[in-house]
Amino acid sequence: MSDRISRRTLLLGSSAALFAGSAPQPISAKSPSERLRLGFIGVGNQGFSNLILCQGEEVAALCDVDDRYLTEAKSRFPNAANYRDFREMFATAELDGVVISSPDHTHALASLLAIEHGLHVYCEKPLSNNYADCQTMAAAAAKSQVVTQFGVQHHAKRGYRRLRQILQSGELGKIAAIHVWSTAPFWPQGVSRPTGEFPIPEWLDWDLWISGSPMRPYAPGYHPMQWRGHWDFGSGALGDNGCHLLDPIVSGLPLTAPTAISVETSGDGSSESPPSWSVVKYLVACEDAAPIPITWYDGGQKPSAEVVGVAHVPDDGILIIAEQAKVYAGKFGGMPQIVPGTATDGFQLSPLAMEDPNNHHQEWLAAIRSGGTTTCPFSYGAKLTSLCLLGNVAVRLNGNVTWNEAAKQFDDSPEANALLTTSQREGWEFPRES
């Protein structure tokens, strides 16, 4: 077999064999009093927030390609080892787990190397910026004995937990449609690839920032944050905020996979960048009910006031249109409520019991100590991210597609199937099969 694993091969069925025969030894649970040795990949912005939320453990290693972020983190945790290249960190640092908060295009390789080294993994959303990577990551995690957590931190908030309870209870009756919308993107989209010659800032290692993606010249407009508006590095508004806003829907209903996806866009998207706005209409299969229409809106698009049932539609939200009532929840953990005037006679949401307050990061750390599981392992992260990424394929083609879940491919669309996977440039290949 070739030294390099083909992502297409993994996608079509061999991913379960990743690390076969070389799986890490069983990982002993940690005592409650023993601090975990953690490494952090990406320590600026959301990465710094994740670092602070895990600072009760031993911050053993810090890794970032931007010296400004690394210097700030070092000032807070002077005893941690410092790295620019996460491959070097995995090769030399003694760790129990790793928190990955670098750009989307680096998630797969960093996670797979962590799993290969027997490390527990917390990885920010989306799980990756392409479908094949998500399947590979989930298969590798399932084969290993590590504890994984997908970084959709709002999953633990009371509002999202309440909405999941409502959906799981079935009290709303038949669900006719779901609408989910976001003001994102908060970064430029519908943009061209930057041109011109620009010096690489002395504080940035551009080669390491590019990681396994195709090399291109440095230019302002990628780092920080704006990379989300470039397909090589990010996942657009749907891949980014969709993982949050679709989370209570995917975790609350027995959805399987989309069957049909259609789109409307601003028309300024390209092979380089997502469009300024999009409306993505899914028909999603459900285990015990008819397929459910789910519509995603971004870039300022949203359902009409007539659809929602209010005079002014909020900028972001989740709307469930069901047999008994319309239920609305605000973004990022907002508490669900019946849209006034939309409930059937006498219908009220039952006072379902709420669990104790929870914390997404602490859940992961507790599971490492107990040898237990999390509510968002990579298997769930792959399912949620894949829904977004399959929608992105339709967005990139600005057309309609039909997904065949059994075959793990689009029907009659080689162009769409080609967008399910990418390849790593030399030196950044995925871990090899044994």
From TrEMBL:
Pfam families assigned: GFO_IDH_MocA, GFO_IDH_MocA_C2
SUPFAM superfamilies xref list: Glyceraldehyde-3-phosphate dehydrogenase-like, C-terminal domain (SSF55347), NAD(P)-binding Rossmann-fold domains (SSF51735)
Family annotation (InterPro entries): Gfo/Idh/MocA-like_OxRdtase_N (IPR000683), Gfo/Idh/MocA_oxidrdct_glycsds (IPR050463), Gfo/Idh/MocA_OxRdtase_bact_C (IPR043906), NAD(P)-bd_dom_sf (IPR036291), TAT_signal (IPR006311)
Domain Gfo/Idh/MocA-like oxidoreductase bacterial type C-terminal stretches: 164-429
MF terms in GO: nucleotide binding
Domain Gfo/Idh/MocA-like oxidoreductase N-terminal residue range list: 37-150
Protein name: Gfo/Idh/MocA family oxidoreductase
Species name: Blastopirellula sediminis
Source organism phylogeny: Bacteria, Pseudomonadati, Planctomycetota, Planctomycetia, Pirellulales
